[in-house]
Amino acid sequence: MKALNQERTLYASAARTATPSGDAVAIIPNQSHVAAHFIIVTSSVTGASVVPTVQGLDSAGNAYDVLVGTAITTTGTVVLKVGPGIGIINNGAVADYLPLRFRLLMTHADGNTITYSARVQMFSASN
User: CA 50, CA 96: separation in Å to the nearest integer?
Assistant: First the structure.
């Protein structure tokens, strides 16, 4: 069955002071998508820093880094890109396939408040 392009919310907009964990971190099963854009929108920062990391997960649940972004310290939009044939940008884009299971981990540097949301747009091979 052909996978269609999809978009999903990974983190609803909220003020956070700590790295999300457990059920707060969505693990997305890949439905034949080869590439994705991870869109992080930061609307408020109070001396905070958060590092976005796209991780793959193997069948045993072991996580591995696919792309580690640059620390986000200001408001605005950051897009991380994963996909074959994508031009490589340090801490921004990687020419690799989207793993079978993946997540976006947002690692907070301290207990200061940062408000952000994150979505993923997943693309099938035929688009």
Answer: 23
